[in-house]
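Researcher: Let's do a round of design. I'm pasting the C-alpha cells now; please hold your answer until I've finished.
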C-alpha cells in the first residue's frame, strides 16, 4: 500500500477503479479516481488528508498494518469534504485525541458533517508545524479552491506542495506520477476537472497562484488529493491553471440541443455543417444533452469561443435536459463567450426567447436573433440552418 514519494514522504491513499460518478450523480468519472493521502515520517509522524468514507476501515487497517497508526502525532486536514475526511471518525476512534490541523472553516465543516468535537488546531496562512530533522509544514489558506475551508500545506525541506483538490483530476492509476501516464488522457481529465469545478472561482485561482508564486518557494512536487502526483516539471499544471483561469477558449464551437421528433436535431446538424463550411479549422462539437454526458458537454463549452443552444418549444418553454444544463452553465459563470439559439416550434414558439434569457443570465453575448423553424425543417429549413451556422462562424 505505502508508496515512496520523496525523502520520508509516502503515499498511503486508495485507488478507486470502479468509480463512475462523483458528487452524488453530478460528475462523471470515466477513468475512476484516487483519494490521495500522505504520511510524513520525520521526528514527528504526520498524516496529510485521509480517504473517502466507504474506504475508511480499509484505510485505517492499512495504516495499522504498515506500523503508521500507532506512531501518528498529528493529522493535517487540508479540506473537510467527505472524500478527503471520510476516514477521520474511524481513525480518531482508534487514536483518540490526535490533533487535527485545519482552517477555521474546516472546523465548521468537519463538526457539521461528523458531529464530533475533535482536538482541532486552527491554522491560517503562514502558520507552521515543526516536524523535526529540519522539516516543517507551512500552511496556506486557499479559500474557494474549491471550498471556503480549503488550504495548501507546503513541506519545507522537501519542497512538496500538498495542494488537495487544486491541480488534481479524477484519474485512477497505479503509476502514481504524472510522467508515467498517458499525457493526453491526463490533460483531458485535468481540463474537465477545472471546467466543471473551478471555473466559477477563476479570479481566486489567479490571485492564489500569484500569492503562492510570490513566496518564491521551490516546488519539486505537487501532491494532489485526486489523480497523479506532479513530479516532472510540476509547475506545468500551475501554468495551465493560470491559462484556464483567464476566460479560456479555443477555436471550438459547441452545439447543445435536445429534440422531440428530430427537427431540432436536423437544425443542429445543418448549423454544424455551415460552421465548418465557413471556418474549416473550427472544431465543432455536438451534444444531444438528453443523451450526452453533461460534464463532457460542459468541458466542451469551457473550451469553446461560442456555443449554440437548441430546443423545441414545449409548454411555452424548453425541454428539461436543455434547461438543466443551462442552469449548470449559469452557475459556472463563463466569461468572454458568444452564443446563439435555435429550435423548432409548432404553435407559440417561445423556446428561443427562453434560451436567450438563460444564456444572457449566464454571461454570454448573444449573436443575432437566433433561428426558428415552424414544424419539421424541409430542404429550405435545413439550408437556413446551414446559413445560420456560417453567420455564427463569421461572427
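Researcher: That's everything. Go ahead.
Model: Designed sequence:
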Amino acid at each position: 500500500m505505502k508508496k515512496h514519494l520523496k525523502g520520508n514522504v509516502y503515499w498511503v491513499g486508495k485507488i478507486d477503479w470502479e468509480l463512475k460518478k462523483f458528487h452524488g450523480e453530478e460528475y462523471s468519472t470515466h477513468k475512476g479516481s484516487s483519494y490521495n493521502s500522505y504520511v510524513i515520517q520525520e521526528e514527528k509522524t504526520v498524516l496529510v488528508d485521509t480517504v473517502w468514507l466507504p474506504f475508511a476501515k480499509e484505510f485505517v487497517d492499512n495504516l495499522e498494518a504498515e506500523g503508521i497508526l500507532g506512531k501518528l502525532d498529528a493529522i493535517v486536514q487540508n479540506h473537510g469534504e467527505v472524500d478527503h475526511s471520510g476516514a477521520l471518525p474511524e481513525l480518531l476512534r482508534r487514536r483518540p485525541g490526535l490533533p487535527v490541523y485545519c482552517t477555521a472553516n474546516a472546523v465548521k465543516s468537519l463538526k457539521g458533517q461528523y458531529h464530533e468535537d475533535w482536538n482541532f488546531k486552527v491554522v491560517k496562512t503562514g502558520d507552521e508545524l515543526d516536524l523535526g530533522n529540519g522539516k516543517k509544514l507551512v500552511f496556506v489558506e486557499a479559500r474557494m479552491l474549491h471550498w471556503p475551508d480549503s488550504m495548501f500545506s507546503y513541506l519545507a525541506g522537501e519542497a512538496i506542495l500538498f495542494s488537495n483538490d487544486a491541480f488534481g483530476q479524477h484519474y485512477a492509476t497505479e503509476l502514481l506520477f504524472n510522467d508515467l501516464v498517458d499525457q493526453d488522457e491526463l490533460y483531458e481529465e485535468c481540463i474537465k476537472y477545472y471546467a466543471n469545478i473551478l471555473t466559477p472561482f477563476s479570479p481566486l485561482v489567479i490571485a492564489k497562484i500569484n500569492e503562492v508564486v510570490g513566496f518564491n518557494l521551490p516546488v519539486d512536487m505537487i501532491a494532489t488529493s485526486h489523480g497523479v502526483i506532479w513530479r516532472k516539471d510540476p509547475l506545468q499544471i500551475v501554468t495551465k491553471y493560470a491559462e484556464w483561469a483567464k476566460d479560456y477558449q479555443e477555436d471550438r464551437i459547441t452545439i447543445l440541443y435536445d429534440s422531440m421528433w428530430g427537427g431540432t436535431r436536423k437544425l443542429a446538424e445543418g448549423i454544424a455543417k455551415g460552421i465548418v463550411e465557413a471556418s474549416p479549422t473550427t472544431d465543432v462539437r455536438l451534444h444531444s444533452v438528453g443523451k450526452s454526458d453533461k460534464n463532457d458537454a460542459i468541458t466542451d463549452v469551457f473550451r469553446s469561443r461560442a456555443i449554440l443552444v437548441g430546443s423545441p418549444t414545449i409548454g411555452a418553454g424548453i425541454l428539461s435536459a436543455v434547461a438543466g444544463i443551462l442552469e449548470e452553465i449559469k452557475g459556472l459563470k463563463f466569461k468572454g463567450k458568444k452564443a446563439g439559439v435555435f429550435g423548432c416550434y409548432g404553435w407559440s414558439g417561445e423556446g428561443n426567447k427562453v434560451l436567450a434569457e438563460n444564456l444572457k443570465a449566464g454571461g454570454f453575448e448573444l449573436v443575432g436573433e437566433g433561428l426558428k423553424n415552424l414544424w419539421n425543417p424541409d430542404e429550405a429549413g435545413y439550408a437556413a440552418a446551414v446559413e445560420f451556422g456560417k453567420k455564427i462562424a463569421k461572427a
